[in-house]
Specification:
By secondary structure, this protein is mainly α. Helix content is 80%, strand content 0%. The chain starts with a helix and ends with a helix.
Length: 494
């Protein structure tokens, strides 16, 4: 239980920064969807460009986050050289990337369809370069079990970003009429939704200063021989990461190209806004990963590794299924996060959440090739999943639009999940509690169908009804896992 207690406490701290941060960031969704009409396609532009940055971030970190954990705990390696060597490598490649993009902006922006606004591309190139560099100190904080500073810096970005967005999308536009000479010094209404990109750059730059100690307070050492060994470990992770992030973003990157109707950016904006509601699953997966990954790589837990992975998988599935039912119970409330002219996209929410659960399970299944240094298998598995997603998108998006994007995620993650499980049981067998996991999945499916089949016009009644179904799921879990008896005993002692 010590592992579960440690996993739970760290997940709570990492989750606090992720969940509170993402929740606060959700304030930007109603802000953007209220200030940027669906018909304008502006939110589709934001969705599209941020999808590119997510892909570029994976490329510019090239698997070095996981590599940092592996080599800090790998026998025969000098941990004092690992972090500065990785930081130097990633920092250098990020700087080169930014210089190349800014130097070639004249043809990159038109190729992406943003010839009229090349500044969007230039600004986001600098942002993704800084994000890539920051990813290594953030990982170092996790490796050193310093979740408080990690959470503090994450929340600093969120609060600053929200504050500036409220200033530039609400306060200054309201003050501008009649005060053009003064407000106009810091605000230009013609920039419009472009401020979303500029404000991101300001916030990212501020957070960089928070790593003063992790950048200047270390003994700088660069070991080229060590870097070559780490690159040998990380390059399959890069392929894996590219395939993985493509599973999350390629639909939004390709949508304007393969959905040939004139309202492509409008439809993409509706899809992108609806997906935000489903991202509660990504929050749980991310928080779990931040706490779980360092524990699995920790040398001191090596003997109990298989047992921990089996237990971690089971509780991950339980938590994500509960989150799925919770979101569906409150969907009539949560939909107000986005403006009503984006509500047509709500149909994709349960589909995207299922895909996110599969992605989380795949992550939990990924340690067999990371711990056995068979990362090439991870690259291959993720590539297969990505190919499946691409096939679904190219075949069905032209006819079915963003619904095909949502189902493509299920197809891609589902394929990767199944293949990874089968190969993992061959190379590093782990006795997952398949029986209980299957039971909880089946129960969730039955409760979801029950919540969807019975409908009345009252949103209050529907929310209460679906919440009761969620409580039924939790009651079954507490009873079956023996948690109810433990909780009762603890309350009795008090």
């Amino acid at each position: 239980m010590g592992f579960i207690k440690k996993l739970g406490s760290d997940t709570a701290i990492y989750g606090l920064s992720s969940i509170i941060g993402r929740f606060l960031n959700y304030l930007l969704v109603p802000l953007y969807t209220a200030k940027i009409s669906a018909a304008s396609g502006g939110y589709g532009v934001i969705t599209n460009i941020y999808s590119y940055t997510a892909l570029l971030l994976v490329i510019l970190t090239y698997g070095m986050e996981t590599t940092l954990f592996r080599f800090l705990n790998k026998e025969g390696e000098n941990p004092e050289k690992v972090y500065p060597t990785i930081l130097t490598s990633v920092g250098t490649t990020a700087l080169v990337f930014v210089a190349l993009v800014l130097g070639c902006l004249g043809w990159i922006a038109p190729a992406m369809g943003y010839a009229e606004h090349p500044e969007y591309i230039g600004v986001m190139a600098i942002v993704v370069g800084l994000d890539a560099f920051q990813a290594i100190p953030f990982s170092y904080l996790r490796a050193k079990k310093r979740p408080i500073k990690f959470a503090t810096l994450k929340l600093l970005f969120i609060f600053l970003n929200i504050g500036l967005n409220l200033l530039y999308f609400v306060a200054l536009p309201a003050l501008y009429p009649g005060h053009e000479s003064t407000v106009g010094l810091i605000y230009d209404p013609s920039i419009g939704y472009g401020y979303a990109f500029f404000l991101n750059l300001v916030c990212t730059g501020v957070v960089t200063f928070g790593f003063w100690k992790e950048i200047f307070g270390i003994k700088w050492q660069f070991d080229w021989t060590l870097l070559k060994r780490m690159l040998g470990y990380s390059w399959p992770l890069l392929v894996l990461g590219i395939a993985g992030i493509l599973n999350q973003t390629v639909d939004k990157i390709l949508f304007p190209y393969i959905y040939t109707a004139s309202d492509a950016h409008v439809q993409l904006g509706i899809y992108g806004a609806a997906v935000k509601i489903a991202m509660i699953m990504a929050l749980i997966t991310q928080a779990f990963r931040y706490a779980y990954e360092p524990l699995i790589f920790d040398k001191s837990t090596k003997e109990d590794n298989n047992k921990m992975q089996a237990l971690g998988m089971k509780f991950f599935v339980i938590f994500t299924l509960a989150a799925f039912l919770a979101v569906m119970a409150g969907i009539d409330i949560l939909k107000h996060i986005i403006s009503p002219d984006y509500w047509d996209g709500l149909v994709v929410v349960p589909i995207v959440m299922i895909a996110e659960i599969m992605m989380g399970i795949y992550f939990n299944l990924s340690f067999w090739y990371k711990l056995t240094d068979r990362t090439i298998w991870g690259a291959a598995i993720s590539a297969v999943g990505c190919i499946m997603l691409l096939l679904v998108n190219f075949l069905f998006v032209p006819q079915y639009g963003y619904m095909a994007c949502a189902w493509g995620g299920v197809a891609g993650y589902g394929t990767a999940m199944v293949v990874s499980y089968l190969l993992g049981q061959h190379y590093m067998p782990i006795k997952y509690d398949i029986k209980d996991i299957a039971l909880y999945v089946a129960l969730t499916a039955v409760l979801y169908v029950a919540g969807s089949a019975f409908t009345v016009e009252s949103e209050v009644i529907m929310t209460i009804y679906r919440s009761l179904l969620l409580l039924l799921f939790l009651a079954v879990v507490l009873k079956r896992e023996g948690l109810y008896a433990k909780l009762k005993a603890r309350l009795h002692r008090r």
